[in-house]
């Protein structure tokens, strides 16, 4: 896949997440996807993470602000909208790297600034 193909794939992941379209995520994620930050392996865990993200704030939306692709990796900067924030606070931010293999996301490394509601 080209860098453009990989960037398109990464964008499609967040489009599917925003629609809570788990069937499309099944197509975009490797069945044995590794989510390093969470220490999780497998599509079922990734699906559960999407469901949980919207359980707390159903109006949550992710906006891909930047995509940079090189080789089999795509770096993303994503802002999170639709979650309550104190006045003057910046939007929560997610930074991720996707590794693409055989046209699917095989690994994700990430970090973010969104705090849990009970934190």
Automatic annotation (TrEMBL):
Chain ranges of the SnoaL-like domain: 11-108
One Pfam family per UniProt: SnoaL_2
InterPro entries for this protein: NTF2-like_dom_sf, SnoaL-like
Protein's name in the database: SnoaL-like domain-containing protein
Source lineage: Bacteria, Bacillati, Chloroflexota, Ktedonobacteria, Ktedonobacterales
């Amino acid at each position: 896949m080209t860098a453009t193909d990989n960037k398109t794939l990464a964008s499609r992941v967040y489009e599917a997440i925003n629609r809570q379209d788990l069937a499309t995520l099944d197509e975009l994620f490797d069945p044995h996807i590794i989510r390093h930050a969470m220490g999780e392996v497998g599509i079922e865990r990734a699906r559960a993470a999407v469901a949980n993200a919207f359980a707390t704030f159903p109006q949550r939306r992710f906006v891909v602000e930047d995509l940079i692709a090189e080789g089999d990796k795509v770096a993303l900067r994503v802002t999170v909208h639709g979650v309550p924030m104190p006045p003057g606070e910046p939007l929560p931010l997610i930074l991720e790297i996707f590794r693409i293999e055989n046209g699917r996301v095989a690994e994700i490394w990430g970090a973010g600034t969104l705090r849990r509601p009970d934190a």
